[in-house]
Structure formats: C-alpha cells, structure tokens
Amino acid sequence: MMASGANPDLEDRVLEKAVGEDPYDCDIHDMIRQRLTPEAKSLWFLCRKFFFSLTVAEKDGESYTSPLTWAMQHHRMYAGRVFFVDTEEHCTFTRVQMPRALKLYNDSCFTHIALTPKGLWGWGHNANFQLGRPSTGGTVRLIFPAYPEVSELEASLAPWHKHELVYDVGMHCGRSVILTRAGPVIGGYCPDQFTGPVEDEEIFHPITLPDRFVPDQLVVRDDLILLSNGDRSAVSGENEHGELGLGHRNEMTGFQELPFRVDHVVDSGDFATTYCRDRHLLFVGLVSSTIARSGLLSGCEEGQYCLTPTPLKFREAVTGWFRSYTLVCWVTGGRTHCCGERLIDVPFEATALFLDTKFRNADGDWFVVSGIKAHTERVPVMMPCEPPDCAFCEIAMVDVDPWHGQ
User: Superkingdom of the source (predicted)?
Assistant: First the structure.
C-alpha cells in the first residue's frame, strides 16, 4: 500500500512535529503537505484488512524523522520492512531495497545503516564515504576490504546470521563507527585521527587501540569517539585544546586509554568536553569566559587549558546541563542558572533554550526574558512568547550530586 502511494500518517503527526520544531519553516511544511496528502489516506479505507494492517503496523512498528534545514526524511519500519519519504526527492514512501532489517542506525545528516541477517546495508548521504564505499544514491552493502579479519569472520557466519558480527554502530555527521566481534572499524571524515595514516579514505579502516583493550560499547559525539569495556575507556578525536582529557594537546593518530573512569559523555565540542563520573560532571579543554565566570570551575582562568578532568562544583543537585562556548546553564530545584553575557536565575526548570533570552518549561511553553525583577540582581521577569523562529538547544538531563569536596 505504501509503495503504491498510501499515506500512513492519518493524524498528520509528521507535519505537527515539523511545525512544533520550527513553526516558521514554511518550505518544509509545504513539502510535507505535498508528499503526505489527505487524499492518499483514503486508500487505507478501501477494505477493512487494509486499515487493520495499518493499525497493527502503527502499534508494533517503528518510525523516526530526520530533519535538516533544507529537507526532511521520515522512516517507517514494520516486520523488518523499511519505507521512507524524502521531501526533497520523493513524491511518496519508497521501500528500501535490502533484506529484512533488525535495527536501524542514523545520524542527523540523512545517513542510514541497517543491521540485517544478511549483513549491514546503508543508504543516504555519503559525501564523506561514511558508508565505507562510493554509492550512487541507492542502497549498498557495507564491506571491509581493509580489514580482512572482519570480512573472514562475516563469511564464516551462517547465511542468515551475518548480524552476529556486529555489537553496535555509532554515527555522527560524516562519520560511522562499527563495533564488530573482530574489532572496531571507522569510515568517513578524517579517519587518520583514529587509525593513523591511510591511503584510501573511501573505505572502512581498522581502529588503532591500546594493548589488550577490546571495546564493547561506543559513544560518537561531534569530534570525539569514546570506546569502553567495563571500567576501561579509550578516546580519540580533535585534541587541539586538550578536550579529550588525556593530559596533553597532541594530535591524535589512534585511541589512547583515559586515565580515569567515565560513566558517559554529557557534551563535547566548542573546544571542551564534559564527562560524567560517579554523579559528578568533569570538565576538560579550553576554559571559556562563561565557564570561568560561572564559578563552577576552581583553579582555572579564562583562556587556560584544563588538561586534567576537573569537577564542576555545584551547590545543589543538578538535573539539567547545557554548555556552549558562549553560554552555560544548569538546572536545580525550581530554577535554571544561566551564565552568558549576563548571570540570571530563571525561576523555573527549563528543558530547552534559545541563547539566554528564551526558555521552555516542562509543559512545553516558551518564555522570554523581559528585564530583571526589582530588588534583585539575577531574577528575570519572564513573559510568555512564541517559540524561537530558528534552531534552539535542548538541555541535557543529568543526575548530579552537590559538590562536597575540598
């Protein structure tokens, strides 16, 4: 039905989501209306079995949307069959030509990898060869010519058990990392940071790891990749400002083991990284003016390189955290503290923000800063407002204890 043009979005959820995320992007909204038309919904009501099949697929299937500034993709998967519509290229849903999918992976740049019983398949954006081979726009099977051990292990598996090769897949714009039973591989943008020098950047390459380190978990964030196994973690990526936490600013040509245990990566980018360990946030990298003025980081001044993980010292338990080079926010009981061009204490727990002027509360309502309350220095007057007309930032949920150390 979907391949014949039927619109499965009976309640217009795709359009509602796009409008909610960016109410002023009329071009995207119009493209969605043109592809997912009301008339195409009627095909599901030609007989009861058609509508019943849609109801079951809605209940048991999966769907996700990948928005970009110029287009949007929407995927639906049921019983391993994957359909997608691209507002820039397709008039209706198109089935992805590959074996039954067991799991889908995607990034924010329209690159997709599917784990199937017949191996890994990829499609979408491939400008940086993050699919490990040149593609012509269709679906391609992922291969590993530079890592014979992976190819041999995959060949040794039964024809419908090729998925047993893979532990996990991580993706970020222009880069793909695949953890296999034979070892991790990487493809895409600037692979030499993780593998050492390579001759052919169009294929997957084995990752250079510390001795006797076999990762089974991974995190891919901006220019940082973290591989873990139990309490051991190894990291690589951009390190010009010491943002990896390795105690130096050397250029990376492979993974090095972190000298401290990491629970997870809260954020990375903007010349710094925030790790989480034992319910505390650890900062490494270039100290921006906002971090320095926030009072959270002792012993470091603006412009210095914080090369060793240093705890951020919060006075209260923290449930939300956001950091960029020009803004730092943390959420405590009933308030959101912001350090940007000014220091303010927003009188509610924000879940998203736009600069340091607009904040979204837990109910999804937006408020704008409209001056500072009388007889206070940092408590702003908050007025209801429309959502931002361009991209805003989500505040990451964390569970951080107050600092009681010296």
Answer: Eukaryota
